[in-house]
Each structure stands twice: as C-alpha cells, then as structure tokens.
Amino acid sequence: MDISNKELRNAITRSGLKYWEIAKEIGISASTFSVWLRFEIDDTKRKAIEVAIKNLEAKRGY
Questions:
Q1: pLDDT by residue (tens digit) across 22-43?
Q2: Does 61 score more than 90 pLDDT?
C-alpha cells in the first residue's frame, strides 16, 4: 500500500516536527492537516507545508 504524500511525510519525520506543529504554523487544525495528507495534495498546499517546515526548523536552529 502506498502512503499518500510519502516524500512530504518523510520530510516531516526527518525534521523531528510533529504534525500539529506544522498545522499550527500553517494556520489550520491538526485534524485538517491529517485530512490533507490522506490524498495527494495540490502544489499550493504542498508549498505551504514545505515553508512551514523550513520556518519551524529555523526557529529551532536546525
């Protein structure tokens, strides 16, 4: 079974961030973020997630 958005999920895992942290950074609920990741997401949402990961990593000093 393929996991939707596998690369994105891997990036989140490597970053050490929690899904709820990314959701908060984007300005959505954790449950909405979970729903987003169930299916392949569009480029706009993907970019928002990537930016959120980078911002949170920068705040942590990675």
A1: 999 999 999 999 999 999 999 8
A2: no
Is the pTM above the cut of 0.70?
yes
- Amino acid occupying residue 17: L
Angle at CA 59, nearest 5°, toward 18 and 40? 40
Give ∠ CA 33-35-51 in degrees, rounded to 5: 30
CB 61 within 8 Å of CB 27: no
Asked if residue 18 is part of any domain, the answer here is yes
Residue 1 lies in a domain: no
Domain span including residue 44: 6-60
Give the number of domains in the chain: 1
